[in-house]
Design goal:
globular, 286 residues, Rossmann fold, alpha/beta, eight-stranded mixed sheet
């Protein structure tokens, strides 16, 4: 049997690293898409040491920059004839407002738009995979959606780091659900994941007050190993082979917020994302 190929973003740390390690142990070929190759190379070697197949590839990609995403997608399509699993894992939190070279707010650009563009560009490879799966890592932070205005996602009228992060996580669920509908006829599933309250490096970007709250909550945090369990389950379990369009936590479906279930929001977000990435120029349609 051919080994299954799994591509992960943000695979050099946190739950992305653990997910890659465990899937490599299960016999998956791993493709790591990472922004910091210096930090990623030791992790690549770590994964190779436990891999059943020894196939662990590493490519550079900055999800915030669309030209970088396009270049990475072209590299992947040049190296591989199929993909079986795509895990949109990378994400960031920033306290102060920042913008990409395209003039798009950085949190939204990284956490949603980069994943949207990458997934669409790799759809052709996923169609050639076996029971292909797309997994998008979201968060219960999606419930911080008060004042969610789709047209303001690229450039908020009043920036707040926590709200921007929450909005981006809401976008992850809306995207995963809309993608599930659009890929229904292609045998590709799409689900989103809440990993849990995981110990991450996000805390270094918090303000003093938020950092204090973060430290107070620290006893309730779970390890990256625990946080990666649902992503690993969705990537590898035969139980979810045909399951699509759901939001998972602790390896079970979970009901997301009302906003995350809105077909109107999902459709509007897709249209906005298509326009911001000029997706139709890349001849992606399904």
């Amino acid at each position: 049997m051919e080994s299954r190929i799994c591509l992960l973003t943000g695979a050099n740390s946190g739950i992305g690293r653990v997910t890659a390690l465990e899937l490599a142990r299960k016999g998956f070929d791993i493709v790591m898409l990472c922004r910091d190759l210096k930090k990623a190379r030791p992790v690549q070697q770590e994964i190779k040491r436990v891999s059943k197949t020894g196939q662990v590839d590493l490519l550079w990609c900055d999800l915030a920059v669309q030209t970088s995403v396009i270049q990475a997608a072209h590299e992947v399509t040049g190296r591989y004839d199929r993909l079986d699993v795509l895990i949109n894992n990378a994400g960031l939190y920033i306290e102060k407002e920042q913008y990409t070279p395209e003039g798009i707010e950085l949190t939204f650009a990284t956490n949603h738009l980069g994943a949207f563009l990458l997934t669409n560009l790799l759809t052709g490879l996923l169609q050639k995979g076996t029971h292909a799966r797309v997994i998008t890592v979201s968060s219960e932070a999606h419930r911080w959606d008060s004042g969610f205005i789709i047209d303001e996602l690229p450039k908020p009228a009043h920036y707040d780091g926590m709200k921007a992060y929450g909005a981006s996580k809401l976008c992850n669920i809306l995207f995963a659900r809309e993608l599930a509908d659009r890929l229904a006829g292609y045998g590709i599933t799409s689900n989103s994941v809440h990993p849990g309250l995981v110990k991450t490096s996000f805390a270094k970007n918090y303000s003093n007050l938020q950092g204090l709250l973060f430290n107070m909550m620290r006893p309730f945090f779970i390890s990256s190993e625990k946080g990666a369990e649902t992503s690993i389950y969705l990537a590898s379990s035969p139980e979810v082979d045909q399951v699509t369009g759901l939001y998972f936590a602790k390896c079970r479906p979970k009901v997301p917020s009302a906003a995350a279930q809105s077909k109107y929001y999902a459709s509007q977000l897709w249209t906005l994302s298509e326009n911001l990435t000029q997706l139709q120029q890349h001849q992606v349609a399904f």
